C-alpha cells in the first residue's frame, strides 16, 4: 500500500484540492482517486481557522467512510469539534469559532447531516494508525516508541497534544517536550500539530504541519518514496505562528 500522508488542512479546501492534483490524483464525482491506487492519510485537524472547514470535513468523510479510499486520524481540533457536536460546553476559540460559524450558517437539514457525518468519521477513526506495509505510524501530534500498540488516556493525550509538560507559554500555548529528538525507533512516525516552515525530519520522525492556514504551505509525505510534496497557501502569512526547531 503506497500512501500520501497529508498535513494539517485546517479548512484550506482549495489548497487540499491543489495538493491532490499535484500528487497525481484525479477528481471524479467530487472525490479524489489516484490511478495507481495510492491511499491518502489525513493526519488530523482538518477543520478550524481556514475558510472552508465544512467542505474539507465532507470531503474527508466521503473519501474515508463512504468510499473507503482514504484514512484519517483525529487531531485536537477534531476532538474539540466532536465534543461541540455532542453538545458539550466547549469554548469557541482557537479556530473552532470559524467552523461553528460555517456550520450555523447552514439550514437545519444540512446541519443534521454535517453533524452526523463528522461524528461517524471521528468515532470510527483509530487514535493513531499503524501502517505495517510501510513500517510507519501516523499520529496527529506524534507518539513515543513505547506507546505504540497501547491505548488509554495517556496515549490519547500524547497523540492529540504532544508531549506536554502541564505548563504554558505566556501566550497560553502549552509547553511541549521535543520527543522527536530522542526517538530511536525504526518505524517512521509521521505527524503534524506544530506548525513549521519546512517539513522537519528528526531521527525517523517527520512533522508535516507546514502551516497552510497560517500562509505557508500544505505538505504531504509519500511512502515508500520518502519524499515530501507541497503546494503554496492562499492564506495570509502569520510569522509568529511558526516554531523554530533544530
From TrEMBL:
- Which GO cellular component terms are attached? cytoplasm
Domain Calcineurin-like phosphoesterase, which positions? 1-196
Q: Which InterPro entries match?
A: Ap4A_hydrolase (IPR050126), Calcineurin-like_PHP (IPR004843), Metallo-depent_PP-like (IPR029052), MPP_PrpE-like (IPR041780), Ser/Thr-sp_prot-phosphatase (IPR006186)
Q: Which Pfam families match?
A: Metallophos
What name does the UniProt record give this protein?
A: Bis(5'-nucleosyl)-tetraphosphatase PrpE
Q: Which organism is it from?
A: Oceanobacillus piezotolerans
GO molecular function term, any single one: phosphatase activity
Amino acid at each position: 500500500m503506497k500512501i500520501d500522508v497529508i498535513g494539517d488542512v485546517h479548512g484550506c479546501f482549495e489548497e487540499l484540492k491543489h495538493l491532490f492534483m499535484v500528487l497525481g490524483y484525479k477528481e471524479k464525482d467530487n472525490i479524489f482517486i489516484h490511478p495507481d491506487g495510492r491511499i491518502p492519510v489525513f493526519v488530523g485537524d482538518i477543520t478550524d481557522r481556514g475558510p472552508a472547514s465544512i467542505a474539507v470535513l465532507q470531503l474527508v468523510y466521503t473519501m474515508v467512510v463512504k468510499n473507503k479510499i482514504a484514512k484519517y486520524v483525529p487531531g485536537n481540533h477534531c476532538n474539540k469539534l466532536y465534543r461541540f457536536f455532542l453538545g458539550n460546553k466547549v469554548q469557541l476559540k482557537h479556530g473552532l469559532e470559524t467552523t461553528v460559524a460555517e456550520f450555523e450558517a447552514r439550514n437545519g437539514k444540512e446541519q443534521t447531516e454535517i453533524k452526523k457525518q463528522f461524528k461517524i468519521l471521528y468515532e470510527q477513526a483509530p487514535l493513531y494508525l499503524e501502517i505495517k506495509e510501510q513500517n510507519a505510524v501516523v499520529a496527529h501530534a506524534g507518539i513515543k516508541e513505547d506507546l505504540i500498540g497501547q491505548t488509554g488516556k495517556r496515549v490519547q493525550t500524547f497523540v492529540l497534544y504532544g508531549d506536554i509538560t502541564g505548563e504554558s507559554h505566556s501566550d497560553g500555548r502549552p509547553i511541549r517536550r521535543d520527543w522527536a529528538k530522542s526517538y530511536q525507533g525504526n518505524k517512521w512516525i509521521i505527524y503534524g500539530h506544530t506548525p513549521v516552515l519546512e517539513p522537519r525530519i528528526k531521527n525517523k520522525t517527520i512533522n508535516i504541519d507546514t502551516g497552510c492556514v497560517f500562509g505557508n504551505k500544505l505538505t504531504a509525505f509519500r511512502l515508500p518514496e520518502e519524499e515530501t510534496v507541497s503546494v503554496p497557501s492562499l492564506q495570509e502569512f502569520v510569522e509568529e505562528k511558526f516554531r523554530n526547531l533544530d
